[in-house]
Amino acid sequence: MSVLSTLRHPIIAAPMAGGPSTPALVAAVSAAGGLGFLAAGMIDTGRLVADVAEVGARTDRPFGVNLFLPDPGGVDEAAIQAYAERLGPQAARRGVSLGEPVGGDDAYPEKMAALLADPVPVVSFVFGLPDRAAVTALRERGTEVWATVTRPDAATAAADLGVDAVVVQGTEAGGHRGGLPDDDDYGLLPLLRLTAARCDRPLVAAGGLVDGPSVAAVLAAGAAAAQLGTAFLRCPEAGSSPMHRAAVASATPTALTRSYTGKRARGVANDFLRQHDAVAPRGYPQVLHLTRPLLAAARRDGDASVANLWAGQAHPLARDLPAAQVVAEVSAGARAALATVVERSSRWG
Amino acid sequence: MSVLSTLRHPIIAAPMAGGPSTPALVAAVSAAGGLGFLAAGMIDTGRLVADVAEVGARTDRPFGVNLFLPDPGGVDEAAIQAYAERLGPQAARRGVSLGEPVGGDDAYPEKMAALLADPVPVVSFVFGLPDRAAVTALRERGTEVWATVTRPDAATAAADLGVDAVVVQGTEAGGHRGGLPDDDDYGLLPLLRLTAARCDRPLVAAGGLVDGPSVAAVLAAGAAAAQLGTAFLRCPEAGSSPMHRAAVASATPTALTRSYTGKRARGVANDFLRQHDAVAPRGYPQVLHLTRPLLAAARRDGDASVANLWAGQAHPLARDLPAAQVVAEVSAGARAALATVVERSSRWG
Predict the structure, then answer these.
(1) Contacts 24+ apart (CB under 8 A), A267-273
(2) Same-domain check for residues A307 and A218
(3) How many structural domains compose chain B?
(4) Residue B187 and residue B41 share a domain
(5) Residue A2 sits in the same domain as residue A111
(6) Pair B215, B228 in one domain
(7) SS in 3 state form for A244-273?
(8) A79 occurs within a structural domain
(9) Are B311 and B190 contained in the same domain?
């Protein structure tokens, strides 16, 4: 029996690396009948193991862990050096030095080993597709494997790998693009329909979904469930900073940019995003490491004009409610939206 | 009684300027219980008047006319000159000269006068919002006025103008962006939800909608009807060229670009789009007039690597069927998709 089929509500809390997806948030969503996801990116393996244990202690319902796949490399060192020279004075004015723009695999092999040693119900991947050995090893231990795609042909490749479900991420989504390369611009509905036409796996729709009617929409378009991130950023259980919560609650539009990390990600637009977007080079995690001290200092100073403020396009609709209530109200809102339209549809023809 | 409330199917054929939206297509969609739209852009007023008369002769059902609003101006003449120098050799190799990059209002005042003299059921606008006088004059003659928006704040402004409905166009849409400026990137679902939260007019969802489940999706998300363009490009009644039909039927992804006309528009990506996208200046209709002889020559030569091939992101799902059958099958598909999900939703909670 698949994890998706055991959910009481067709709602998944997207993994949000960098703080928001606390064990408390993940457990609250799963306990409420949705599916919570830990974000394993940008933390060390010890922390991941501890977070997994904490979720397990808080709920006996299924949950997932999301892994960042290592970048295949091939960055333009000169472009990253030029970006460092551009950002240097801004860092100096704030009293910090930029970081070393090093590469790295985010301890992927070690995290994978930990998840094989102590299996969780679901592991999802972003930043490309896992290799066949990883899929096989996880599935042999009873872990479902979910891939993330941002273009239709990646969904075909994911199905060929034998994954259990495919997360279909539209351009509306907050945070990093889950696909590789990072420059797809498919809106969620066309991507969902094009993916459904060529991939027989259950589809999880992600990107810009915050309320009941938008969840109803993706289910009507063929998704088995909806994955919401921004909708949970204002929950008391989330680890989001006060500055981040304020940006989510604002009406300021978002934009996609490589300014902060070298990989395209969507955040509430601010000065830093606009000043550097046109020249920010591709190069993850090199640019992430480069900007990290500057962005951390901006967060420490409460400077929302510089810090990254990841959010999906519908962020003004996110609400300050406990996670269980978000799950229940979004689900009820989806059901009500469907009932209204089905009643209307009886009059067509 | 609003035009939307008289439709037997919640399906509108998007106005597609440049040939596809023939009177035969418009009349076929309206006669089938949807709503057809003539495209008044880039034709002269005599032709518009004749097209309106022909639709009226073919069906007694309501239909609409779409008008291009004149650009407020402010183009960068030097950038357009540089683009002309870049394209010159390519035009010469094809044996044509580039056009004069002149401005112009697409005979907007004259077309408006014709529509006031001989009113049609609906007039929709793109490229910004009409002024209050135009809205009032049309409504006094019994014509509904629909505005097109690509960002939430424009929907608020449209509602303040007293329009009868708002067409909400997501980034997934084929052809030109209907808003002003042309660089919004909202996906359809977030835009629909953000617009519904601040605008009490009926919403028409547009962008990347080709099949029944995607139409079901936008209705569940609160739209009163769905506007489909690409879905009709392969119909026998459409004026689409064989080259355009082949591109729509292909799996080649689309992209947004100013390469062809100086205004961002989505088409199936080809060499011309990719070669010039990074440098093509903003400037409509100047760039349209500049490239017109080159693009016309490419069409004449059947060269799909140069001609503009407008299409929405879900174009591979468009089918070669008579327009009435597209309307009936998309509507039936939407109803079936809704029935399936509503059955599932009874088990949540």
Answers:
(1) A267/A174, A267/A175, A267/A308, A267/A309, A267/A310, A267/A311, A268/A309, A268/A311, A268/A315, A270/A304, A270/A305, A270/A306, A270/A307, A270/A309, A271/A305, A271/A306, A272/A298, A272/A305, A272/A306, A272/A307, A272/A308
(2) no
(3) 2
(4) yes
(5) yes
(6) yes
(7) HHHHHHCCCCEEEECCCCCCCEEEECCHHH
(8) yes
(9) no
- Give the domain range for residue B40: 1-70+105-240+321-349
Contact status, residue A195 vs residue A168, Cβ threshold 8 Å: yes
Query: How far does A270 lie from chain B, in Å, by closest CA?
Result: 16
> Quick check: is A59 in a domain?
yes
With CB atoms and an 8 Å threshold, state whether B189 touches A197: no
Asked casually if ipTM beats, i.e. exceeds, 0.95, the reply is yes
Condensed to tens digits (0 to 9), the pLDDT of residues A231-262 reads: 999 999 999 999 999 999 999 999 999 999 99
Residue A343 is assigned to a structural domain of this protein: no
Q: Are the Cβ atoms of A316 and B255 closer than 8 angstroms?
A: no
CB B267 within 8 A of CB B257: yes
Tokens representing A190? 């066309």
Closest CB from A8, A216, A317 relative to B220: A216
Cross-strand partners of B63: B36
Candidates A189, A194, A344; nearest CB to B188: A189
Question: Average pLDDT in the A31-37 region?
Answer: 98
Considering the domain architecture, whether residues B167 and B224 belong to the same structural domain is answered as yes
> CB-based contacts of B150: which residues, under 8 Å, 6+ apart?
B169, B170, B171, B177, B178, B179, B184, B186, B191
User: pLDDT tens for residues A266-279?
Assistant: 999 999 999 999 99
Q: What is the pLDDT of residue B73?
A: 81
Q: Which residues of chain B have pLDDT under 50?
A: none
Is the separation of the CB atoms in B234 and B248 below 8 Å?
yes
CATH code for the domain in which residue B50 is found: 3.20.20.70
Say whether both A156 and A232 belong to one domain: yes
Q: Is A335 close to B312, i.e. CB distance below 8 A?
A: no
Residue A330, CA distances (Å) to A174, A295, A336, B270, B338 in order: 18, 33, 10, 41, 18
Residues B202 and B218 in one domain: yes
